[in-house]
Predict the 3D structure of the following.
Amino acid sequence: MNITRPGFSLAGPIALPENEVQLWRVDLGAVGPEEPRWQQVLSEDERARAARFHFSRDRQSYVSSRALLRIILAAYLGAEPRELSFRYSEKEKPALSGAHAAQKIEFNISHSGMAALLAFTRGREVGVDVELIRHDFDVEGIAHRFFSEHERQELMAFALEERHAAFFRCWTRKEAYVKATGSGLSLPLSQFDVSMAAGNINALIATRPDATEAERWCMREVPGGDGYAAALCVLGRGWRLRAWSEQERVSCSAVDDVQAP
Ligand SMILES: CC(C)(COP(=O)(O)OP(=O)(O)OC[C@H]1O[C@@H](n2cnc3c(N)ncnc32)[C@H](O)[C@@H]1OP(=O)(O)O)[C@@H](O)C(=O)NCCC(=O)NCCS
């Protein structure tokens, strides 16, 4: 679903089948100004974190995306948004804690510019990343620093006018993997290769030193909105994506056929 109204609410429980990944998009420009409403949904520690943001735009993005995370999770769980509690891994990846953790709902969120993406699964680790495609970026310099040799070569093979979009496809795919594993910046970004071809649904090409790791994950491009690149990485295969933009279910695995809506 695409959340574009500050008055957004969810009535009743929503199903999250085990073989499905559900992707939501939030228009932060539309929902951010309704901050007092979203603040009411947050816990004490979340409100304290919100108060530490220097820029009000960053605070609004955090507050509205965290509140909507709670509202959507509560709809999956049949609970109240304020009842939910989170724990954080050593690298700060949030997960449900307490009694609600037993339902094995996994989630990940990402925000950039005026967009937030929220991905939900059951029993599978998940990472999502969205980035505003910027053209004022030294893509060659950053690629030299962070991308693998394979990726640098693939990037330089793109024509100049296509290189920024290719760069952000690569970046979001790398981030989605790092976020799915929860490893944050501790995983050297040169230890795995992703494809930067547009529309790729099987984008994790190689992992090092353990080459079998690449087969454990499914990484694909997802719709991020006009002017945005976005990617999703999920543990295992045999799941379908229910994406915000398409109202349709798309197969993840390259070996499966696309499912009928
Ligand atoms: C924190 C990090 C996980 C993602 O940061 P990011 O891309 O700047 O931010 P995103 O908006 O995509 O994601 C932030 C959300 O991820 C979640 N998150 C935080 N730590 C996480 C972790 N270790 N694993 C997974 N998710 C995490 C949180 O929900 C966070 O949202 P919140 O701050 O509203 O609670 C980390 O990977 C990072 O700092 N990456 C940037 C590093 C870089 O240079 N990348 C180059 C790629 S080529």
